[in-house]
Amino acid sequence: MSAGALPWRGRRLHFVGVGGAGMSGYARLAQALGAEVSGSDQANTPFAKRLAADGVLRASIGHAVENLPAGGELEVIYSSAVPEDNVERRAARERGLAERSRAGLLAELTSLRRTVAVAGTHGKTTTASMLVYAMRAAGLAPSWMVGGFLADGEPNAYWDEGEWLVVEADESDRSMLSLDVDVAVLTNVELDHHTAFPSLAELLEAFASFLASARGAIVVWNQPALLELAPRGAQALPAPAGEQGPRAAIELVPYQAPRAALGPEGSSFRWRGHEVRLAVPGAHNALNAVAALEAARLTGAEEAAAVHGLADFRGAARRFQLVGRSRQGARVYDDRTLEHERLVAAFQPHLFSRTALLAREFGRALALADAAVVLDVYPARERAEEYPGVSGLVIAEATADCAEGRPVYWLPRLADAAPVLQGLLGDGDVCVIMGAGDVDALARMLVGA
Length: 449
Fold this sequence. Notes:
Radius of gyration: 22 Å
Number of strands: 21
Number of helices: 13
CATH class of the largest domain: Alpha Beta
Number of domains: 3
CATH superfamily of the largest domain: Mur-like, catalytic domain
Strand order of the largest sheet: 8-7-9-6-10-11-12
């Protein structure tokens, strides 16, 4: 993009919580659009380190008044994880600076390009990343902002020359309702983010509002409860041969789970007459791929080229990502259709509110493993004192209740879990490391990275 075409040239943006998966992407795109950017975070996260390595910004570690650049023409951008009493947000208000949530900034970004927004309780990052690969292979040069690094060292956000922008539509803070959307994708809906949505009915209503905002087309997993969320007037119509791009009327595109041949190294299936081969395992990834391909088709991507692009997709970081092998030869995945002697699951709960409400459900799921390790809660934006008696131990106990004698370990710290897992894992085992916090460090401990 030429200097004269930088729409945010002259703006100064300071990001509080810039080390997060989402906020780091906003900072990256803001700089690409010409803004002067700065930011801070409590920890020097992998996203913060990547911003520094790529010359976007060097984050201040720790929140302090001194982190705010001088001058009155400064916009302070904050995420939902940063409370109102944060010292930098408070200082911004005292200085009379513009203080804005990330939702408002995302709304601005989506107004600059035709936008495909991927929503759903699960699978957003992987589906959006697959979509980027498919569209790039078709020569569409999309911009993107997703919730994790793409494979092969690709950043979590990039501003390119094409007419399309691919984003995740996040329901956790209702920011998905602020987007300017041309093509909306909905992968699934389950009750989550309980502090924002007290009931499933309220969450479904929010997703229905998101789908209603789409101007061009809606791509939805073909499930009755999801199809009911589509607005009246959206129609599921067969696309005429050779037609590309969304129609003038809103088109509803239900997609089916494919009959995929699954293996430890990936899967294959047929889609619209094409043979699709994926290098990422699991039936869930085959389903994500169909959603991505349907959305790519609606943006004008040539089908065969989009399919070819997905063959190069190696997974989004921390989404069922093969990290390596343990000293004894066990495969370690960060995040089953895998050949294994035993499945060992290590889980770090994310948020006290979610732990309190879903402990029994988490326990039943973890109990399916041959052995389970439960760590303590990663608090993110929540505070332990507001949830007395809630810790990872309640999930460990629920898991043990359902495990029918299979071993369950309560190991609160990463440093506690690493040596136990090294002793547990043997050649032929699969270890899946799950959680949205810093539990990825445990995976690296196990493989010696």
